[in-house]
Amino acid sequence: MILTTRLLTLAALAVVASAVSVQLVPPALRGVPNSVSEDTPDLEGRLTDIDTIVSTAQIVEQKDGPTADSPPNQPISDTVVTAVDGELTEAGAATPSNSTSNGRRTLPKKRRAVSDYNLVFSGTGTRSTDRDASIQGTAYLTFRVIDNSTYNVDACLDFCSSEPKCVFANLYYEFNNERLDHFDREKSNLKCAIYGDVHTAVEKTNFGGQQSYSTGNSLTYIQQSSGWASKDLLEPDVPEGYELVFGPLDGANNAPGYMGFAFLDKYDVDACARECNRRGADGNGGACQYFNIWRAVVSGVPTTYTCSMYFIVADASTAVNTGQGDLKVTFSRGYSRKNYLIDGGFEGYTECASFCFTESYTNWVASSPAGGYLDASVFYFKTYARNGHGSALLGSATFADDKSGTLSVAQPLKTEAGKKYQVAFFQNSAFSGPTFQAKSIVQVLWNGKVVETIKPGFTTWKFHSVDVVAVGNDILAFSGGSAPAWTFLDDVSLWPLFQ
Ligand SMILES: *[C@@H]1O[C@H](CO)[C@@H](O)[C@H](O)[C@H]1NC(C)=O
Ligand SMILES: *[C@@H]1O[C@H](CO)[C@@H](O)[C@H](O)[C@H]1NC(C)=O
């Protein structure tokens, strides 16, 4: 009985196999894929949407400064996102990208001295009729009250120098403020407000006029409001997991692979890196791989800090957008995400000039289970690749069997133990058409353990990702394929998720 069933099954298999082999030329024989990438979208076409950025910059409101009743010595708040893809966040600011500096300490910069500052504007005198105004500007950090026995510029600039993010200080007297006059322990009406961006006299828009005392009707007013800017604008530290590509320039990228933008309330490259890391992947283009951060100056006033994201790495050659109308682009810098994987595009396999394949080369090693033949391999052939000429194949390249092979990195990865990474890759299982591709399978192995199983069926290039935690010297591998349900892999990445 058992014998009969088995014979029948084998006979059925033989029929299917011969039918299939007639129709299907396997990849090893340079078979033509059922579906060539004509139907993949035009990735080059998605350029930076500068119009939306400009129109959003006209309405975003993220200027700030001390008010009559704000307490001094508040900690500097985390960078907040004030707009996402043309929509302002709550109150032009909300969604604090929970950062608290991820425990990473920036190295102390060279300590600035008072002589490292320039006077940007001076204030009025202090006669009873003099009236001045304090700054309401972007990238407000915090304020202190300073000993008011003199107009203490040095103490204010020392305060700015002590804060790594500070590049500008606004020093002024505020009168008729009950809190300053009586409640605060410092007993001083000399306020020193610090900022992460430089401001000018046109931004002196806070004239006081608030009722602070509970009795009487004298309103707050301001005198002798001066502004001081650090001579060197701070060169930001490169965010972890990224590389500086260019900048600072006065041009923003107009580049393909655009994924959208966020406005930040400070020029904060770490916050922009976080936005890029957290940006949902584009189904066709994949993960964010590059960001462009720049300051928008509208009618001469710093207004917001744009963080544009891309799934294609750009460079200075497309940093050509200097502004539009009254908006000027300044301090534009580009950063690309570091791929911790060597040769994730299989471009390092260069045995031939148009068509060849192998089980192993310098960067990747394939293996087949017992009795299997060429169940994983790497191809040099433009037609099979998503990018360039290299791609990997899971499933017997010659159609010798229907076993699943394994493709592994040749060298352990230079990962940091305990840190989180994302494995990202593109997979294509369209070669033999919808019927024969129904059983497609891909597994991601991290140190030999399956961390993800995908049963994609029939599909052209599709993005996938899985988060992993490193133990150090980790081994990444892919297994799968079951000819004729072949799967091609390309553009494999390992992104750090430290930010
Ligand atoms: C954000 O950080 C604060 C403390 O820094 C923490 O209390 C809070 O739970 C965090 N929120 C999220 C969503 O991680
Ligand atoms: C210093 O500030 C305190 C509190 O506002 C005020 O009472 C005092 O008159 C100020 N002193 C000078 C010299 O301005």
TrEMBL record:
Q: Would you say which domain of life the source belongs to?
A: Eukaryota
Region annotated Disordered, chain positions: 90-109
Biased composition regions of type Polar residues, renumbered to the chain:
95-104
Q: Where is the signal peptide?
A: 1-19
- The protein here is known as Fruit-body specific protein a
State the UniProt keywords alphabetically.
Answer: Signal
